[in-house]
Amino acid sequence: QGAGGSGGGRLLLLLAGLLSALGPSPTSSIHVYTQREVYGTVGSHVTLSCSFWSSEWISEDISITWHFQAEGSRDSTSIFHYAKGQPYIDDVGSFKERMEWVGNPHRKDGSIVIHNLDYTDNGTFTCDVKNPP
């Protein structure tokens, strides 16, 4: 419960992209790009953008995983997976009913939307992309 005020509360969602170096050559890699900070208003929705570039073709085995680390916590929780051509919202935590997959790996996009933002959504979200040869 925050101190009452006129207007909705603002949330700061921090994003991080993980660089995955895969394959036989050290130059085979994926570069993952996210916004550094995303702000949202309690009750609204926000798109967490995750785009990537790969030096290799986009494999059918590409996987995308989103993790969430609550503000002040040391633990990170997996909240979303894309694997074998299908999106999977993890059945744990407060995001399972509020998350929407809007990405398209063939367009190098791993973005998600979180609906009905709450103060407890403050924290760091990490997008991890793997494109195994």
UniProtKB/TrEMBL annotation:
SUPFAM superfamilies: Immunoglobulin. Its main location: membrane. InterPro entries: Ig-like_dom (IPR007110), Ig-like_dom_sf (IPR036179), Ig-like_fold (IPR013783), Ig_V-set (IPR013106), Myelin_P0-rel (IPR000920). It comes from the Eukaryota. Residues 1-29 form the signal peptide. One of its GO terms (biological process) is myelination. Residues 26-133 form the Ig-like domain. It is a single-pass type I membrane protein. Keywords: Disulfide bond, Glycoprotein, Immunoglobulin domain, Membrane, Signal, Transmembrane, Transmembrane helix. It is found in: Membrane. GO terms for cellular component: plasma membrane. Belongs to the myelin P0 protein family. This is MYP0 protein. It comes from Uria aalge.
